[in-house]
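[agent] plan:
  1. take the single chain provided in the ticket
  2. run structure prediction with default settings
  3. attach structure tokens to the ticket
  4. add a short note for the reviewer (M.T.)
[agent] executing step 1
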Amino acid sequence: MRRRHNDSKSVVSPFIAAATAYAANCALGASVAVRLIDTSHFRWVHHALYIATCITTASAIVAGWCCGQSTRGRRAARALAPAAVPLAAIPYLGTRGRRHPLVALTAAPFIVAGLVVSRPTAHRK
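[agent] step 2 finished; step 3 output follows
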């Protein structure tokens, strides 16, 4: 039984990391958009969070596909994979105007779906 618990953690952890990086990036972006935070002197933080989001998302997809002992990891990877499209498109679509947050938010359903599917069924509510 102990082994199964460890496998469960190894599948869920990368998806938690991807969702956390994405949420932090969205929170910072939204805070800047409503002028709660001024990042004019440290714009690199948003860029670093974007890179972390891309890396953790790719890592979760690979971990789910390759390392999962069950089909749950592969299903979670398939659920998360479409998030790579808007994440890859963001740098090419510009950062000014409404398009940037709209494109960024199109990744949200896939990130949430990957996180939910990665969790063992006993933990879902």
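[agent] step 4 note for reviewer: Residues 1-5 have pLDDT under 50 and may be disordered.
[agent] ticket updated
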